[in-house]
Task: structure prediction
Amino acid sequence: MQGCEKIVHIDRALSVLEPMLQACCLCPRMCKVDRNSSAGFCRQSVLPRVSSALLHFGEEPPLVKSGGSGTVFFSGCSMRCVYCQNFAISQKNNGRDISAASLSDVFLALQDDGAENINLVTPTAHLPGILRALRVSFKEGLGIPIVYNTSSYERPEIIEQLEGIVDIYLADIRYTDDDKGESYSGVRGYWTVASSAIKEMHRQVGAFKEGRHDGSRGLIIRHLVLPNGISGTEQMAEFIAYELSSSVPVSLMSQYRPVFNARHFPEISKRITDEEYKQALVQLEIYNIIGWFQHFSGFEEDRVRPIRRRG
Ligand code: SF4
Result:
């Protein structure tokens, strides 16, 4: 979609999302604080807050290509994962508030540096500011795909507003059980809201397809395998196969580390085993799900390989 078409969608979305800052309901926490004068659970005020922006070469292969993914890490999070791998940004709120104009400069600089896309990491609490920045960027020639990189703890009504703006959803499935979300991420109803939000993402963009001249578009699911089956890989595979499409690719991640507060939970206070990862891979293969998996070899060239359909 051309930038000028996206501006029309942005204006529509801003008319709904910007007034929400007065009684914030941007995520399922529904804090209803006035973000102009105070911060809610996510600790964000009215301006977008950015921790870092860089060309990232560790994302999924079709997002990286030769130029890297133009990744912007936003501060804060509405989840409180006890094992958060990015806790300094998400929970300690490292970063700095910036204006929409400055954020637009960041997006355009990433494009100038060769980025294949703009990858918005944990964008939900910052959406009005991000949309204002994108509006400026599209006017000034931003033409690469927009990636929405999310925990999936999202209100489907908010995701609906992103139709026509976001090209690629990079959506985590952390658990397939609300109780696990409460125990390890401090959120109520994780799977209930995440499964609905992901269905809305899929309705908008379908399964991910790599396009020419970067018409790449669609939904990619990310799944971090946790020890002792806590992430619910088999249920996730069943959900994708039966409620989305087995053409939706899964990025099966092996890099779990028991950092931050994970040591207080014996069942997740260790890394996953090679066997647990292989079992998760088999569960995807049973449902004929494609995507990318990682090796335990530690060699960068082996880091991500395609999961192929069974013959
Ligand atoms: S975005 Fe932040 S302030 Fe708004 S509802 Fe969510 S946690 Fe609360």
Observations:
- The mean pLDDT is 94.
- The first strand starts at residue 49 and ends at 56.
- The chain has one domain: 3-307.
